[in-house]
Amino acid sequence: MALLREWGLTLGKWTGRPAPVLERDSGDPEVTRAREAAEAGDWTAVRAVLEARPESADRTELLMAVADTAGVERWIGRVVEAEPDAPLPKLVAGLRQVSWGWEARSALRARHVSREQFEVFHERLRTAETLLYEVAEREPSWVSPWYGLQMSGRGLEVGQVTARRRFEAAVRRDPHHPGVHRQQLQQVCAKWGGSHEEMHAFAREAAFGAPAGTPLGQLVALAHVEHWLDLESGPDAAYMGGPRVAEELHRAADHSYRHPDFAPRTGRLEILNTFAMAFSLAGERDAARECFEATGGRVTEFPWQYLDNDPVAAYRTQRSAARR
Description:
Blueprint: H1 2-6, E1 21-22, H2 29-39, H3 43-52, H4 60-67, H5 72-82, H6 87-105, H7 115-138, H8 144-156, H9 160-173, H10 178-187, H11 196-208, H12 218-229, H13 235-240, H14 243-255, H15 268-281, H16 285-295, E2 298-299, H17 301-304, H18 311-323
Parallel strand pairs: 1-2
Helix pairs in contact: 2-3, 2-4, 4-6, 5-6, 6-7, 6-8, 7-8, 8-9, 8-10, 9-10, 11-12, 12-14, 12-15, 15-16, 15-18, 16-18
C-alpha cells in the first residue's frame, strides 16, 4: 500500500474516475518504439531498442511487441540471411513464427479449429522451435528463447514433462521471471492437460516462495480466474465468491503490489488490472476499488478480454460495480 500512496493515490475511497483507455503497450515507451519500428520494417531501430535492454533486465515484452506485429515475417528472414551468425535476428524470427502460428490457430477451442488451420499452426511452430533452439545454444544465458519454446511447446503438445523441463531451463536463467511463470501456469491449467489442483499449487509455490513485493503474486489471481472460467454459470460465481478465494487474493496482494518493495521491472499495470478483475469477480469491492484507482483508468488487454472482446467495456463495467 505504501508504494501505491507514492504514486499519489488515496486508498480506500473513490477519488474520481478517469475515462478508461486501452494501454496498448503497458505504458512503456520503449515497447511503443519497438512496435512502431517493427511496423515500419526498420530493423536498425528494432535492434537498437532491443539491445538497449539486456536479457538481465527482461526484454521479453519488447521482443513480443515486435513478434506480435503483423508483417514482421515478410522482412525478418532477410535480416537473418544477412546476419547468419547473429542470434538476435533469429530470436525475433523465431518468436514471430510462434506468434504468427497462434494467429493461424486462433483463440477458439480446438474443436472449432479446422485441420488446415492446425497444419499451418504446427508448421510455423516447428520453424520457431528450430530457430529458438539455435539461439538457446548460441546464447546459453538468455531466457527469451526458452520463453518462446514454452509457447511453441504448448501448441505442439510436447507434454507436461518436456514443458516442465523448458520451464526449468528458463528459471535457471531468471528464477522469478514473470512471463516464464505465466506461461507455465497456462501449461498446468486443466485446458492444457493439467488440473486445477496443480495450477493452484504452482501459483502458490511460485508467488509465496518469491521475495516480498514480487510480481509473481499475479499468478494466484490468474489461477483463480482460470478456475472460474472453467466452471459453468452458477458454480463459477459460487467458487469465486467463496472465502478461500478472497483470503488467497488478499494474501497474494499483500505479498505483491501492496508491499513497499513492489517494483517490477515490467508489467506493473497488467498486475494491477489482473487483481482489479479478480477482486471484482470475488465481490471484494474495496480491494477492487483500490486496484482500479491505482490503474488510473489505464486498461490492459489482458486479462479483461476474458470477459469481453472489448477490454475497456469489461473494465468499465467492473469498475462501476466496485463503486456501488
